[in-house]
Specification:
This protein is an all-alpha fold. The protein has helices at about 5-25, 30-40, 40-50, 50-75, 80-100, 105, 115-140, 150-160, 180-200. The protein is elongated and about 60 Å long.
Length: about 200
Amino acid sequence: MHTEAKDEMRDKILEAALKRFTHYGASKTTMNEIADDLHCSKASLYYYFPDKKAMHIAVLEKIAEAYFQQMEKEAIQVKSAAKALYNIIDLRKDFISKFCRLEIFQILQDNSALFLEEKKKAKQREVNIHTAIIKAGIESGEFKVKDPAQTAELLVLTSMGLRFSVPDHIREDMDLDEEMMDQVIEKQKQLLEIFIKGIKA
């Protein structure tokens, strides 16, 4: 099979999996159902992915790329750095609302060497985006910060930590539903308000 055809088939599988995962939930979707949707054999799916977990991760990587691109767009066209930071939280909320059935937070608990490296890259990418926005704020005279990268990392890490602050969300292996996510987003906005006041020029 030619590389182009292989890539096209892989993309079709990911689209079908995303559709199923978004509608029914990743854990309730079977490889057979995805194969039926594509009118192909289950063996065809295993040619591209060793198991459903690998497919699940590939789906998350695909949607995460679109999410990061949206955030990077915010970092490029900064008019108000404070507004851009709030926009990032709104993008996060929209992303989680749209894909809440994908069990994102459960898969993020995967600590295998391969996925740890991917998580590390994703976190750094988010820090870089926040760094760019904070730097834009410094250049415009909106923020007064000595170390933009360190400040950005602190903001990203504290925002991520708030995910575990929701009372009903006790175990790390549980997933956030939309109501829980709204509570987390509200706390992230409150944190950002305090944070911005602290770095305003």
